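# step 3/5: fold
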Amino acid sequence: MTGWQSWDEQDAAAWIAVPRDASDKYSRGVLGVVTGSELYPGAAVLGVEGASRTGVGMIRYLGADRPSDLVIRRRPEVVTASGRVQGWLIGSGMDATSRPDDDAHRLRAALRDGRPLVIDAGALDLVGQASAPVIVTPHFRELATMLATGADDDSDAVTADDIAADPAGWAVRAADSLGVTVLLKGHTTHVAAPGGPLYTVTAGPPWLATAGSGDVLGGVLGALVATHAREIDEGGHAALAALGATAAWVHGRAAERVSDGGPIVALDIVGGLPGVVRDLVRSVGDR
């Protein structure tokens, strides 16, 4: 499929928001996070960590008691009260088939808030309820489930194997049919906005395929969305696609940095994020 652009360091550097002398925690972007669950609390910690280390002024975490407690123990600066945000990260570490009423209420509130959303995992079934532009971050199996929901019958349903055989094509079909920007995770990540643009990102070692890695990616992307609310208001899905490609590039480069050829776990990736962001900022200053 033609029309795909490879996203590189120069492209990513243009989408890093750098605070100024007059900046405060609110002007730097506030990210609302509804992730994790009693069964999967670690996803909340990893997403919050990823966002914190990418560069955002404040994080508001709204979740169940167990993930909330773990998030605060790890990141005491996180706020657990509701309030104004510039973007949302929802769904990581949640299960759509067993959604508690409290989580459902929090998710509905985020979807109706009118701010752009990063939707992952256990909230992917809710994309049609969003009142603002959405970028989704599925892997092959999750995208197959999303597309199966809209199939007329079982014969029309796509499988994860189908998507693996043609990720570029299915990313475009999903973006156009669902009306959302799609970040389809894989060794080569495909980012497709409805009607274009189309970006590919090849970054990160094979060791990046590890539990929780996608939760960190969601946090990185959430931070970028919250710090670029104005650009999303003006550019819509084109801006979301650029931010998605930047998140995938930063995430992959952070993994390369900390791996250095060896195995890593998801939390290791977080440690590499500030250095990657710093180098992107410096590369702009050096031009």
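# step 4/5: annotate
The radius of gyration is 17 Å.
# step 5/5: archive (pending)
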